[in-house]
């Protein structure tokens, strides 16, 4: 075999291996069934605080103004870029104060290579929480202690290999 033929063979083998690495995960589901963190409670948004004016508000006036209620930080996944996805996600806190992104039992998404979970905004991927543990089922991703949750409103599964969002949930 000539040197040129050997090089072509090596390139062909590498191309087939790369194609298999990118395509095979699409056909293999990885199911996860993690328990929710112990004594987990759903996190809520902080109610909007109105700045007080210099004049005092009477008790009667104060009673007429509805108090803003906090909203639970929950969302539903929707597929993006021709990928299918569904299921619920929420932000929770356990008894020790650790915070998590919780994908519920009903989570299901197309699979792919290099899927990463992010928390951020609609315009910014934000903070990586690590590799997607499975494309089906309940799973938890611990949030960094220094992450300001008032600055994030989106959880997404992003494919690094294809530079594409697979699914996004607005909280």
Describe this structure in words.
The protein has 171 residues and is α+β, with helices and mostly antiparallel strands. The protein is built from two helices and twelve strands, in the order αββαββββββββββ. β11 (154-159) and β12 form a beta hairpin. Residues 50-55 have low confidence and may be disordered.
Along the chain, the helix and strand elements come as HEEHEEEEEEEEEE
What's the shape?
A: elongated
Q: How many β strands by DSSP?
A: 12
Mean of all residue-level pLDDT scores: 87
The quaternary structure here is single chain
Key structural traits:
171 residues, alpha+beta, ten-stranded mixed sheet, two-stranded antiparallel sheet, elongated
Short description, anyone?
The protein has 171 residues and is of the alpha+beta class. The protein has helices at 3-27, 59-64; strands spanning 31-33, 41-42, 74-79, 85-86, 88-93, 99-103, 108-109, 115-120, 127-131, 136-142, 154-159, 164-170.
Strand and helix map with partners:
Layout: H1 3-27, E1 31-33, E2 41-42, H2 59-64, E3 74-79, E4 85-86, E5 88-93, E6 99-103, E7 108-109, E8 115-120, E9 127-131, E10 136-142, E11 154-159, E12 164-170
Parallel strand pairs: 1-10
Antiparallel strand pairs: 2-5, 3-5, 3-12, 4-7, 5-6, 6-10, 8-9, 8-11, 11-12
